[in-house]
Amino acid sequence: MRHLMVTSDVYIRSRWFEDIPVGEFHVFGSHTFSELEIVEFGKTYSPYVFHTDPVGALDTPHRGLVASGWHLTAMWMKMMVLYMERFADGVRDGRRNGAGMGIEELVWLRPVRPGHTITFTYDIIDKPDRIVRDRWGIIRSRNEAFNQYNELVMTFTIDILAERNPALLPQPAGSRG
Amino acid sequence: MRYWQDIETGETFNTPRLTVTKEDILEFAAEFDPQPYHLDTDAASASIFGGLCASGWQVTALMTRLLSETMQENNIATLGAAGVRKLRWKIPVFAGDELSATLEVTGSGPSQNPGMGELECHVVLSNQHSNPVIWTNITLLVQLRENQENTDEAPHGHE
Q: A160 forms bridges with which residues in the sheet?
């Protein structure tokens, strides 16, 4: 079954680059990190004692098991995708999904430990005036993650491509070479 | 063991290679980044990437694995990362790609965390064609030498 094929009417609910305003703020997801998932991620991607061994981690300067910072960013992505799927049906099709270009000023400020509940927010801070690969624009967002005590645990800025409205793109004078 | 004080600016480390399989890509995507271009070959070929590729966050995680293993094999008392000043995903990682990284220490400074110092590092993750996949400036945490005795005594304090 070609369930990934969607008809164009679904796109009505998706937004073009031009429709996304600077200043838009979303609280888009929340996740409680378990000891098991912290250890599994650590064993696969960041095999340090303080990410993989709850007992051994006590003897490190981290004073106990902490989630890998890259586990937090991976969870940020998961929360974002799940949120966007509710926001715009076109996400499941994929042809209109943009790509991340890069991040700046990522800081992990406090440890995330088993049982901590992390809430993710993003704030659209800029739309640089560039057209990427003929049909994409850049959405720059400031992202923050807070623990259950409302303490900031992670912050970063990311540039993500969003599709520009074809009707508003400059029309090429001739055929593209 | 080599501590923060023992690391010189300009030191360079090269990681071994790892191969990214299609199963790796699908597994990570299903858990953390369930977008069609990371999950479905047909949808991926119609996407911005032109083919099934790894989530950018899986690539940063794989870079971390290479670096953490290499730093530990070199007996450096690494304690993870404090942050990333800048990171660029240059090109996608497709199934079968082989990744390896080089890390150069570009600076050194104090940390807010007790018993730790920071190293500024420039890291390039490349594929089997020597094309840069990720280019980043990252801040690593390394244990301070004088903290070693305190750390060794900590278990007794708990008893």
A: A100, A139
Closest CA to A159 of A133, A144, A140, A143: A140
Q: Is the confidence at residue A13, as pLDDT, over 60? A: no
Taking contacts as CB-CB distances below 8 angstroms, the residues of chain B near A46 are 61, 64-65, 68, 80
**Segment 67-126 of chain B within 8 Å of chain A by CB:** 68-69, 72, 78-89, 113-116
Q: What's the pLDDT at A51?
A: 96
Q: For chain A, give the mean pLDDT.
A: 87
Strand ranges (DSSP E) for B6-149? 12-14, 18-19, 78-89, 98-110, 116-126, 132-143
Cα gap B78→B67, rounded to integer Å: 10
Closest CA to A79 of B37, B57, B54: B57
Domains and CATH numbers, chain B: 4-20+56-158 (3.10.129.10)
Give the global pTM. 0.88
What is this model's ipTM?
0.89
Domains and CATH numbers, chain A: 24-165 (3.10.129.10)
User: What pLDDT, in 10s, does the model give residues B103-119?
Assistant: 999 999 999 988 999 99
User: How close B51 comes to chain A (CA, Å)?
Assistant: 11
Do B56 and A99 make contact, defined as CB atoms within 8 angstroms? Answer: yes
Mean pLDDT calculated for residue range A125-153: 94
The answer on pLDDT for B155 being more than 50 is no
